[in-house]
Amino acid sequence: MEPERNQPEFPQLYKSAFTYPAIDNHAHPLLRPEHRDHIDIPFDGVISEAGGVALQDSIHTLACYRAASQLSELYQLEGASWNDVKTHRSQVDYIDLCKQCIKPTGIQCILLDDGLGLPELAADYTWHDQFTHSPTRRIVRIEVVAEGILTPIIKEYVEKEDMAIQELFDTFSRRLSETLTRDAIDTNVAGFKSIICYRSGLDVYPLSDLDGDILRPVLALVNSYIENKGRIRLNNKFFNDYVVRTALAIAVMHNKPVQFHTGLGDDDISLRTSSPSHLQPLIKAYPKAIFVLLHSSYPYTREAGYLTSVYRNVYLDFGEVFPFVSGEGQRSIIKQVIELSPTNKILWSTDGHWWPESYYLGTVQARQALYQARIGSYVFSDVVRSRELTEAQAVHIVESALFHNANAIYNLGLEPYQGP
User: Fold this and answer.
1) Among 98, 176, 381, 420, which is least packed by CB within 10 angstroms?
2) Reduced to 3 states, what is the DSSP secondary structure of residue 192?
3) How many CA atoms lie within 13 A of 359 on its CB side?
Protein backbone atom coordinates (compact mmCIF):
# COMPACT_ATOMS: atom_id res chain seq x y z
CA MET A 1 0.00 0.00 0.00
CA GLU A 2 2.87 2.37 0.80
CA PRO A 3 5.47 2.28 -1.97
CA GLU A 4 8.84 1.25 -0.59
CA ARG A 5 11.44 3.51 -2.15
CA ASN A 6 14.20 2.65 0.30
CA GLN A 7 14.79 -0.06 2.86
CA PRO A 8 12.51 0.89 5.81
CA GLU A 9 14.27 1.74 9.05
CA PHE A 10 11.96 -0.60 11.00
CA PRO A 11 11.02 -3.40 8.57
CA GLN A 12 8.73 -5.38 10.87
CA LEU A 13 6.84 -2.28 11.95
CA TYR A 14 6.59 -1.20 8.32
CA LYS A 15 5.19 -4.57 7.31
CA SER A 16 2.58 -4.59 10.07
CA ALA A 17 1.46 -1.01 9.48
CA PHE A 18 0.98 -1.45 5.75
CA THR A 19 -0.04 -5.09 5.29
CA TYR A 20 -1.55 -6.53 8.47
CA PRO A 21 -5.25 -7.48 8.08
CA ALA A 22 -7.70 -4.98 9.52
CA ILE A 23 -11.15 -5.00 11.07
CA ASP A 24 -13.04 -1.86 10.12
CA ASN A 25 -14.97 -1.43 13.36
CA HIS A 26 -17.22 1.35 12.09
CA ALA A 27 -18.40 1.98 8.54
CA HIS A 28 -21.56 2.52 6.52
CA PRO A 29 -23.03 1.09 3.31
CA LEU A 30 -21.87 1.83 -0.17
CA LEU A 31 -24.38 3.15 -2.65
CA ARG A 32 -26.24 0.63 -4.75
CA PRO A 33 -24.83 0.39 -8.29
CA GLU A 34 -27.88 2.11 -9.78
CA HIS A 35 -27.43 5.05 -7.41
CA ARG A 36 -23.65 5.45 -7.68
CA ASP A 37 -23.91 9.02 -9.01
CA HIS A 38 -27.03 10.12 -7.18
CA ILE A 39 -27.53 13.87 -7.37
CA ASP A 40 -28.28 14.19 -3.65
CA ILE A 41 -24.95 12.62 -2.65
CA PRO A 42 -22.12 14.64 -4.25
CA PHE A 43 -18.75 12.90 -4.38
CA ASP A 44 -17.03 15.86 -2.69
CA GLY A 45 -18.52 14.49 0.54
CA VAL A 46 -15.81 11.84 0.52
CA ILE A 47 -13.34 14.42 1.87
CA SER A 48 -15.54 16.60 4.09
CA GLU A 49 -18.42 16.51 6.57
CA ALA A 50 -19.64 19.83 5.20
CA GLY A 51 -22.96 20.00 3.43
CA GLY A 52 -24.86 22.36 1.16
CA VAL A 53 -22.98 25.38 -0.11
CA ALA A 54 -20.25 24.87 2.51
CA LEU A 55 -19.19 21.70 0.70
CA GLN A 56 -17.98 23.86 -2.21
CA ASP A 57 -15.03 25.00 -0.10
CA SER A 58 -13.91 21.44 0.69
CA ILE A 59 -12.00 21.15 -2.59
CA HIS A 60 -9.60 23.81 -1.29
CA THR A 61 -8.54 21.83 1.79
CA LEU A 62 -5.31 19.94 2.34
CA ALA A 63 -7.47 16.85 2.75
CA CYS A 64 -8.78 17.21 -0.80
CA TYR A 65 -5.37 17.90 -2.35
CA ARG A 66 -3.98 14.79 -0.67
CA ALA A 67 -6.97 12.65 -1.64
CA ALA A 68 -6.69 13.76 -5.26
CA SER A 69 -3.04 12.74 -5.31
CA GLN A 70 -3.68 9.34 -3.74
CA LEU A 71 -6.67 8.54 -5.93
CA SER A 72 -4.91 9.63 -9.09
CA GLU A 73 -2.11 7.22 -8.14
CA LEU A 74 -4.62 4.43 -7.44
CA TYR A 75 -6.30 5.02 -10.81
CA GLN A 76 -2.96 5.54 -12.60
CA LEU A 77 -3.91 9.01 -13.78
CA GLU A 78 -0.49 10.61 -13.20
CA GLY A 79 -1.21 13.66 -11.08
CA ALA A 80 -4.81 14.20 -12.09
CA SER A 81 -6.91 16.99 -10.65
CA TRP A 82 -9.87 16.38 -8.36
CA ASN A 83 -12.26 16.87 -11.28
CA ASP A 84 -10.24 14.42 -13.38
CA VAL A 85 -10.58 11.84 -10.62
CA LYS A 86 -14.34 12.36 -10.51
CA THR A 87 -14.63 12.02 -14.26
CA HIS A 88 -12.57 8.84 -14.34
CA ARG A 89 -14.45 7.08 -11.54
CA SER A 90 -17.81 7.76 -13.20
CA GLN A 91 -16.64 5.83 -16.28
CA VAL A 92 -15.48 2.67 -14.49
CA ASP A 93 -17.77 -0.31 -13.90
CA TYR A 94 -19.06 0.07 -10.35
CA ILE A 95 -18.18 -3.39 -9.04
CA ASP A 96 -14.72 -3.08 -10.54
CA LEU A 97 -14.39 0.35 -8.92
CA CYS A 98 -15.32 -1.09 -5.51
CA LYS A 99 -12.86 -3.94 -5.88
CA GLN A 100 -10.10 -1.60 -7.02
CA CYS A 101 -10.63 0.58 -3.95
CA ILE A 102 -11.19 -2.06 -1.28
CA LYS A 103 -8.85 -4.89 -2.29
CA PRO A 104 -5.61 -2.97 -1.49
CA THR A 105 -6.89 -1.92 1.96
CA GLY A 106 -6.41 -5.23 3.70
CA ILE A 107 -9.83 -4.90 5.33
CA GLN A 108 -10.85 -8.40 6.40
CA CYS A 109 -14.16 -7.61 8.07
CA ILE A 110 -16.50 -4.60 8.15
CA LEU A 111 -18.77 -3.71 11.07
CA LEU A 112 -21.43 -1.75 9.26
CA ASP A 113 -23.90 0.76 10.66
CA ASP A 114 -26.70 0.45 8.13
CA GLY A 115 -28.84 3.14 9.75
CA LEU A 116 -27.35 6.02 7.80
CA GLY A 117 -29.93 8.20 6.05
CA LEU A 118 -31.41 7.46 2.62
CA PRO A 119 -31.65 3.67 3.11
CA GLU A 120 -33.35 3.33 -0.28
CA LEU A 121 -30.03 4.26 -1.91
CA ALA A 122 -27.78 2.01 0.20
CA ALA A 123 -26.58 -1.50 -0.53
CA ASP A 124 -27.54 -4.24 1.93
CA TYR A 125 -24.87 -5.04 4.48
CA THR A 126 -24.41 -8.57 3.10
CA TRP A 127 -23.70 -7.11 -0.36
CA HIS A 128 -20.34 -5.93 0.98
CA ASP A 129 -19.20 -9.50 1.66
CA GLN A 130 -17.97 -9.81 -1.93
CA PHE A 131 -15.10 -7.45 -1.11
CA THR A 132 -13.81 -8.96 2.16
CA HIS A 133 -12.58 -12.32 3.42
CA SER A 134 -14.87 -12.40 6.47
CA PRO A 135 -18.63 -11.66 6.44
CA THR A 136 -19.84 -8.17 7.23
CA ARG A 137 -21.53 -7.72 10.61
CA ARG A 138 -24.20 -5.16 11.50
CA ILE A 139 -24.06 -2.29 13.95
CA VAL A 140 -27.64 -1.37 14.91
CA ARG A 141 -28.34 2.36 15.13
CA ILE A 142 -30.70 2.64 18.08
CA GLU A 143 -32.31 5.98 17.19
CA VAL A 144 -33.41 4.58 13.82
CA VAL A 145 -34.93 1.58 15.60
CA ALA A 146 -36.76 3.89 18.01
CA GLU A 147 -38.09 6.08 15.19
CA GLY A 148 -39.37 3.04 13.35
CA ILE A 149 -41.24 1.91 16.46
CA LEU A 150 -42.62 5.33 17.36
CA THR A 151 -44.00 6.23 13.94
CA PRO A 152 -46.87 3.69 13.76
CA ILE A 153 -47.69 4.13 17.46
CA ILE A 154 -48.06 7.90 17.13
CA LYS A 155 -49.96 7.43 13.87
CA GLU A 156 -52.47 5.28 15.75
CA TYR A 157 -52.64 7.84 18.57
CA VAL A 158 -53.34 10.70 16.13
CA GLU A 159 -55.89 8.83 14.03
CA LYS A 160 -57.86 7.01 16.72
CA GLU A 161 -57.67 9.61 19.49
CA ASP A 162 -58.53 6.97 22.09
CA MET A 163 -55.05 6.08 23.28
CA ALA A 164 -53.82 7.53 26.55
CA ILE A 165 -50.42 9.19 26.74
CA GLN A 166 -49.21 6.59 29.23
CA GLU A 167 -50.36 3.77 26.94
CA LEU A 168 -48.48 5.32 24.04
CA PHE A 169 -45.26 5.46 26.04
CA ASP A 170 -45.70 1.98 27.56
CA THR A 171 -46.29 0.47 24.12
CA PHE A 172 -43.18 2.18 22.79
CA SER A 173 -41.10 1.08 25.78
CA ARG A 174 -42.15 -2.54 25.43
CA ARG A 175 -41.56 -2.70 21.67
CA LEU A 176 -38.19 -0.95 21.96
CA SER A 177 -36.99 -3.45 24.53
CA GLU A 178 -38.25 -6.40 22.49
CA THR A 179 -36.68 -5.15 19.25
CA LEU A 180 -33.28 -4.32 20.74
CA THR A 181 -33.22 -7.68 22.52
CA ARG A 182 -33.86 -9.47 19.21
CA ASP A 183 -31.03 -7.49 17.68
CA ALA A 184 -28.72 -8.26 20.59
CA ILE A 185 -29.14 -12.02 20.18
CA ASP A 186 -28.79 -11.87 16.39
CA THR A 187 -25.42 -13.41 15.51
CA ASN A 188 -25.10 -10.99 12.58
CA VAL A 189 -25.18 -8.01 14.96
CA ALA A 190 -21.83 -7.01 16.48
CA GLY A 191 -23.10 -4.10 18.55
CA PHE A 192 -25.25 -1.00 18.88
CA LYS A 193 -24.63 2.63 17.99
CA SER A 194 -26.10 5.90 19.24
CA ILE A 195 -26.13 9.22 17.42
CA ILE A 196 -27.50 11.09 20.43
CA CYS A 197 -24.58 13.47 19.92
CA TYR A 198 -26.45 14.75 16.85
CA ARG A 199 -29.88 14.80 18.40
CA SER A 200 -29.77 16.16 21.95
CA GLY A 201 -26.09 16.03 22.95
CA LEU A 202 -23.88 13.64 24.89
CA ASP A 203 -24.97 14.99 28.27
CA VAL A 204 -27.27 12.01 28.77
CA TYR A 205 -29.11 11.92 32.09
CA PRO A 206 -27.91 8.65 33.67
CA LEU A 207 -30.96 7.98 35.84
CA SER A 208 -34.52 7.23 34.82
CA ASP A 209 -36.77 10.28 34.98
CA LEU A 210 -40.02 8.38 34.38
CA ASP A 211 -41.38 9.64 37.68
CA GLY A 212 -41.55 13.08 36.08
CA ASP A 213 -44.15 14.43 33.69
CA ILE A 214 -44.05 12.46 30.43
CA LEU A 215 -46.99 14.37 28.97
CA ARG A 216 -44.88 17.22 27.62
CA PRO A 217 -42.20 15.18 25.76
CA VAL A 218 -44.80 12.78 24.34
CA LEU A 219 -46.97 15.61 23.05
CA ALA A 220 -43.88 17.28 21.61
CA LEU A 221 -43.24 14.15 19.53
CA VAL A 222 -46.88 13.99 18.47
CA ASN A 223 -46.76 17.62 17.33
CA SER A 224 -43.49 16.96 15.49
CA TYR A 225 -45.11 13.99 13.73
CA ILE A 226 -48.00 16.18 12.59
CA GLU A 227 -45.79 19.11 11.51
CA ASN A 228 -43.48 16.80 9.54
CA LYS A 229 -46.38 15.02 7.82
CA GLY A 230 -45.95 11.63 9.43
CA ARG A 231 -42.18 11.61 9.85
CA ILE A 232 -40.49 11.20 13.22
CA ARG A 233 -37.00 12.51 13.94
CA LEU A 234 -35.99 11.65 17.47
CA ASN A 235 -34.49 14.85 18.87
CA ASN A 236 -36.45 14.92 22.11
CA LYS A 237 -34.07 14.74 25.08
CA PHE A 238 -36.45 12.76 27.27
CA PHE A 239 -36.91 10.08 24.61
CA ASN A 240 -33.30 10.16 23.38
CA ASP A 241 -31.92 9.65 26.87
CA TYR A 242 -34.44 6.89 27.53
CA VAL A 243 -33.49 5.05 24.32
CA VAL A 244 -29.79 5.19 25.20
CA ARG A 245 -30.36 3.89 28.73
CA THR A 246 -32.56 1.08 27.41
CA ALA A 247 -29.93 0.07 24.85
CA LEU A 248 -27.15 0.13 27.44
CA ALA A 249 -29.13 -2.12 29.79
CA ILE A 250 -29.81 -4.64 27.01
CA ALA A 251 -26.24 -4.43 25.73
CA VAL A 252 -24.95 -5.32 29.19
CA MET A 253 -27.20 -8.39 29.36
CA HIS A 254 -25.94 -9.63 25.98
CA ASN A 255 -22.34 -8.37 26.08
CA LYS A 256 -22.68 -6.08 23.08
CA PRO A 257 -20.58 -2.90 22.77
CA VAL A 258 -22.36 0.42 22.26
CA GLN A 259 -20.73 2.91 19.92
CA PHE A 260 -21.27 6.63 20.45
CA HIS A 261 -20.73 9.26 17.81
CA THR A 262 -18.44 11.81 19.48
CA GLY A 263 -16.74 14.93 18.18
CA LEU A 264 -16.30 15.32 14.43
CA GLY A 265 -19.56 15.57 12.49
CA ASP A 266 -21.55 17.80 10.20
CA ASP A 267 -23.32 21.03 11.10
CA ASP A 268 -26.17 19.08 12.70
CA ILE A 269 -24.23 18.53 15.92
CA SER A 270 -23.72 21.00 18.73
CA LEU A 271 -19.96 21.16 19.07
CA ARG A 272 -20.36 22.19 22.70
CA THR A 273 -22.06 18.93 23.70
CA SER A 274 -20.12 16.61 21.38
CA SER A 275 -17.19 16.15 23.77
CA PRO A 276 -17.13 12.64 25.30
CA SER A 277 -16.50 14.24 28.68
CA HIS A 278 -20.29 14.72 28.86
CA LEU A 279 -20.66 10.94 28.94
CA GLN A 280 -18.74 10.55 32.18
CA PRO A 281 -21.83 10.29 34.46
CA LEU A 282 -23.35 7.70 32.12
CA ILE A 283 -20.12 5.71 32.01
CA LYS A 284 -20.10 5.63 35.80
CA ALA A 285 -23.76 4.61 35.95
CA TYR A 286 -23.22 1.65 33.57
CA PRO A 287 -19.85 0.17 34.60
CA LYS A 288 -20.55 -3.14 32.85
CA ALA A 289 -21.50 -1.55 29.53
CA ILE A 290 -18.85 -1.32 26.81
CA PHE A 291 -18.59 2.24 25.48
CA VAL A 292 -16.81 2.81 22.14
CA LEU A 293 -16.10 6.49 21.49
CA LEU A 294 -16.09 7.01 17.74
CA HIS A 295 -14.14 9.31 15.40
CA SER A 296 -11.18 9.99 17.71
CA SER A 297 -13.65 12.32 19.48
CA TYR A 298 -11.88 14.99 17.43
CA PRO A 299 -11.24 17.75 18.44
CA TYR A 300 -11.66 16.31 21.94
CA THR A 301 -9.21 13.44 21.52
CA ARG A 302 -7.37 13.99 24.79
CA GLU A 303 -10.65 13.98 26.74
CA ALA A 304 -11.49 10.63 25.16
CA GLY A 305 -8.05 9.27 25.96
CA TYR A 306 -8.51 10.29 29.57
CA LEU A 307 -11.79 8.38 29.78
CA THR A 308 -10.19 5.22 28.38
CA SER A 309 -7.44 5.47 30.98
CA VAL A 310 -9.64 5.72 34.06
CA TYR A 311 -12.64 3.56 33.09
CA ARG A 312 -12.24 -0.10 32.24
CA ASN A 313 -15.34 -0.07 30.04
CA VAL A 314 -14.34 2.75 27.65
CA TYR A 315 -12.62 2.26 24.28
CA LEU A 316 -11.52 4.77 21.65
CA ASP A 317 -11.90 4.49 17.89
CA PHE A 318 -9.49 6.56 15.79
CA GLY A 319 -11.53 6.77 12.61
CA GLU A 320 -13.21 9.34 10.35
CA VAL A 321 -10.26 11.75 10.65
CA PHE A 322 -9.03 9.80 7.61
CA PRO A 323 -9.36 11.57 5.17
CA PHE A 324 -11.19 14.62 6.61
CA VAL A 325 -8.18 15.96 8.54
CA SER A 326 -4.81 16.85 7.01
CA GLY A 327 -1.97 14.35 7.20
CA GLU A 328 -0.14 16.29 9.90
CA GLY A 329 -3.38 16.61 11.83
CA GLN A 330 -3.93 12.85 11.60
CA ARG A 331 -0.50 12.10 13.00
CA SER A 332 -1.11 14.58 15.81
CA ILE A 333 -4.40 12.86 16.62
CA ILE A 334 -2.80 9.43 16.84
CA LYS A 335 -0.12 10.86 19.12
CA GLN A 336 -2.87 12.23 21.37
CA VAL A 337 -4.65 8.87 21.34
CA ILE A 338 -1.58 7.00 22.57
CA GLU A 339 -0.53 9.66 25.09
CA LEU A 340 -2.79 8.15 27.73
CA SER A 341 -5.01 5.43 26.25
CA PRO A 342 -4.16 1.83 27.07
CA THR A 343 -3.10 0.41 23.73
CA ASN A 344 -5.42 -2.60 24.10
CA LYS A 345 -8.35 -0.17 24.01
CA ILE A 346 -7.81 1.65 20.71
CA LEU A 347 -9.66 0.63 17.54
CA TRP A 348 -9.41 1.66 13.92
CA SER A 349 -12.15 2.39 11.39
CA THR A 350 -12.68 4.07 8.04
CA ASP A 351 -16.16 5.48 8.64
CA GLY A 352 -16.43 4.54 4.97
CA HIS A 353 -19.77 5.42 3.40
CA TRP A 354 -21.46 5.79 0.03
CA TRP A 355 -18.29 5.79 -2.11
CA PRO A 356 -15.67 2.98 -2.26
CA GLU A 357 -12.95 5.64 -2.26
CA SER A 358 -13.90 6.48 1.33
CA TYR A 359 -12.80 2.99 2.33
CA TYR A 360 -9.56 3.30 0.38
CA LEU A 361 -8.59 6.73 1.70
CA GLY A 362 -9.69 5.86 5.23
CA THR A 363 -7.34 2.88 5.20
CA VAL A 364 -4.28 4.05 3.30
CA GLN A 365 -4.07 7.27 5.29
CA ALA A 366 -4.54 5.49 8.62
CA ARG A 367 -1.78 3.02 7.79
CA GLN A 368 0.51 5.84 6.77
CA ALA A 369 -0.25 7.78 9.93
CA LEU A 370 0.49 4.72 12.07
CA TYR A 371 3.94 4.44 10.60
CA GLN A 372 5.45 7.16 8.53
CA ALA A 373 4.92 10.88 8.15
CA ARG A 374 6.39 13.13 5.55
CA ILE A 375 9.94 14.46 5.79
CA GLY A 376 11.07 11.86 8.28
CA SER A 377 8.65 12.69 11.08
CA TYR A 378 7.35 9.54 12.71
CA VAL A 379 4.65 8.41 15.12
CA PHE A 380 5.32 4.87 16.34
CA SER A 381 8.71 4.74 14.63
CA ASP A 382 9.66 7.92 16.49
CA VAL A 383 9.16 6.35 19.91
CA VAL A 384 11.02 3.24 18.74
CA ARG A 385 13.96 5.38 17.66
CA SER A 386 14.00 7.14 21.02
CA ARG A 387 13.92 3.72 22.74
CA GLU A 388 10.65 4.36 24.51
CA LEU A 389 9.39 1.23 22.74
CA THR A 390 11.03 -1.76 21.16
CA GLU A 391 10.11 -2.45 17.58
CA ALA A 392 8.35 -5.63 18.70
CA GLN A 393 6.19 -3.66 21.12
CA ALA A 394 5.28 -1.15 18.42
CA VAL A 395 4.36 -4.00 16.05
CA HIS A 396 2.09 -5.46 18.72
CA ILE A 397 0.36 -2.11 19.25
CA VAL A 398 -0.24 -1.55 15.52
CA GLU A 399 -1.55 -5.07 14.90
CA SER A 400 -3.80 -4.83 17.94
CA ALA A 401 -5.20 -1.46 16.86
CA LEU A 402 -5.88 -2.69 13.33
CA PHE A 403 -7.28 -6.11 14.17
CA HIS A 404 -6.99 -7.81 17.54
CA ASN A 405 -8.62 -5.20 19.81
CA ALA A 406 -11.80 -5.05 17.72
CA ASN A 407 -11.80 -8.82 17.35
CA ALA A 408 -11.85 -9.16 21.13
CA ILE A 409 -14.21 -6.32 22.02
CA TYR A 410 -16.89 -7.37 19.52
CA ASN A 411 -16.38 -11.12 20.14
CA LEU A 412 -15.88 -11.76 16.42
CA GLY A 413 -13.75 -14.88 16.79
CA LEU A 414 -11.71 -14.17 13.65
CA GLU A 415 -8.20 -15.20 12.71
CA PRO A 416 -6.14 -12.66 10.74
CA TYR A 417 -6.25 -13.65 7.08
CA GLN A 418 -3.09 -12.89 5.14
CA GLY A 419 -3.89 -14.67 1.92
CA PRO A 420 -3.49 -18.25 0.69
Assistant:
1) 420
2) strand
3) 33
The amino acid at residue 9 is E
CA–CA separation, 418 vs 403, rounded Å?
A: 12
In the chain, count H helices and then E strands.
17, 8
User: In terms of Cα–Cα distance, which of 266, 275, 243 is closest to 140?
Assistant: 243
**Distance in angstroms (rounded) separating the CA atoms of residues 273 and 263:** 9
- The one-character DSSP state at 315 is E
Q: Return the CA Rg of the chain.
A: 22
Q: Note the pLDDT of residue 316.
A: 98
Fold held by 11-409:
TIM Barrel (3.20.20)
Q: What is the pLDDT of residues 351-394, one digit of tens each?
A: 999 999 999 999 999 999 998 632 233 466 666 666 777 888 88
C-alpha distances out from residue 85 to 70, 88, 218, Å: 10, 5, 49
Residue 6 exposed, middle or buried by CB count within 10 Å (0-12, 13-18, 19+): exposed
What is the per-residue DSSP string for 30-60? BBPGGGTT-TTS-GGGGG-S--GGGGGGGGG
